[in-house]
Amino acid sequence: MTLSRRRLLQLSAVAAGAAAVGTGTVAEAAGREPDWAALRKRLHGALLQRNQAGYEEIRPPFNLLYDDRCPPAIARCTDADDVRKCLEFAAVNTIKFAARSGGHSYVAYSTPGDGLVADLKLMNRVEVRRNGTAVVGAGARLIDVYHALAAEGRALPGGTCGSVGIAGLTLGGGIGVLMRKYGLTCDHLDGAKVVTPRDFRVRSVDPGSDLGWALTGGGGGNFGITTEFTFRTVPAPPRVTVFVVNFPEGSGTDVYGAWQDWVTAAPREFWSNISVLGGPNPAAGVPGCLLGGEQQARELIADLERRAGVKGTVSGFQEMDYLGAMDFWSGSLGRRRFAAASRVLAKKADPARLSALVTGETKIALEINPLDAAVSDVCPTETAFAHRGVFGDVQVYLSADPDVDRETAKHEVNDVQARLAEFATGGAYVNYLNDDQKDWATAYYGVNLPTLRAAAAKYDPSGVLAFEQGLSPRPV
């Protein structure tokens, strides 16, 4: 298995992180058909039902393993008032509800097959203010956010899959290529507008409030439906150098062992992750992104090769501007067929033990992202994202062939994750949702779980947003 740029982008497409914006159920359906016509009349946007023109174009979730999800109705919300009306309608009719930004929920929680979906994609305005803050609609895709910011000379740390929605990424944390320098996406949240099910109000949320804190990594759909974000941005870096280094079969152990020391010793202006690629003799692929010029990037590559004792093949080596780099990493915006899970490494891993997880696994890769530098400058309770002061996150990723069914794919991933959990004891990343995750609440939220549960109970006391891996109280 070789890490081509296309393969890297397939991994990164899901690694961008995309939790469900919100999904839930108040109770079992009351045995009567909701009055969809009445809701349609109240909305500014369209309400599409099964077999209606336009429904199929917006229905599919990102993950093709869950392509069987067909919600009875999808609302094309155009403003926060549409979201409020949809949320209220779901509560009154005791039906499942989900708000969807990019639709990248790993297990399609944002596309329930038996509920109402509030699709936010039309709420995609991006406004960059003179003071450097950016107001972003919850339906904006990352690539559109990056283009709007770059036009004003600004940047925001975020994920590498351009079709991911800003909402899911932010609410789950938001890892990406600028994070060692600038931290997570949620670290830049400066305010939001949220529709809360407690009173069906559109609230302007201050970052210092309990609700504002909960939005900084507390997971999508747990407290309300966020319709707008305000971010503190940073100056766009004038020069960015990108590359991918592929290392041969049999080098996975040595390259990973070298990489984990190399990346943490690198300047904060540099980001890299590593994919240990499964097979009889695991290989490795190492992408890199430097906020600087070509010469320094070449020196970094040479240092990694020296540490690993293995020569790699460099591809995609380019110096460009910030927007060019974001476009480079975004790649194809198409859908994927995959199963995945994650574990957080509290400390560096034994290289042989880690690569052994994918020895013989020809369809599985381990993608490891560092969570050091600026990410770990923040203490675990300062934001809702608790995975601070750790080494990194490991994503177990399986690219599923068309003839592989969902349960088979999940079983293969879960088997690897279970063995990984024996030494990766730091929890799991909520934007890499796994519906079989053991002790999921503690794994995702760690020390912040009690405070997050309290916020969910406060703003959603009736459990309108309760779902399989949600924090709202489960309705009786």
How would you describe what is shown here?
With 476 residues, the protein is α+β, with helices and mostly antiparallel strands. Among the domains are: 126-236, Uridine Diphospho-n-acetylenolpyruvylglucosamine Reductase, domain 3; 238-435, Vanillyl-alcohol Oxidase, Chain A, domain 3. It has helices spanning 5-15, 36-42, 55-58, 80-92, 142-151, 166-172, 179-182, 210-214, 252-265, 294-308, 322-330, 351-356, 406-420, 440-445, 449-459; strands at 22-24, 47-49, 73-76, 96-100, 115-119, 126-128, 133-137, 154-155, 189-196, 201-205, 225-232, 234-235, 240-247, 270-272, 274-277, 283-290, 313-320, 338-345, 364-370, 392-399. The strands form four sheets. Strands 13, 14, 15, 16, 17, 18, 19 and 20 form an eight-stranded antiparallel β-sheet that branches. It has a five-stranded mixed β-sheet with strand order 1-4-5-3-2, covered by helices on one side. Strands 6-7-11-9-10 form a five-stranded antiparallel β-sheet. A hairpin with a 4-residue loop joins strand 9 and strand 10 (201-205). Helix 5 runs antiparallel to helix 11 (322-330) and helix 9 crosses helix 10. The longest helix has 15 residues, at 294-308. The termini are far apart. Its cofactor is FAD. Belongs to the oxygen-dependent FAD-linked oxidoreductase family. GO terms for molecular function: FAD binding; oxidoreductase activity. Residues 67-236 form the FAD-binding PCMH-type domain. This is FAD-binding oxidoreductase.
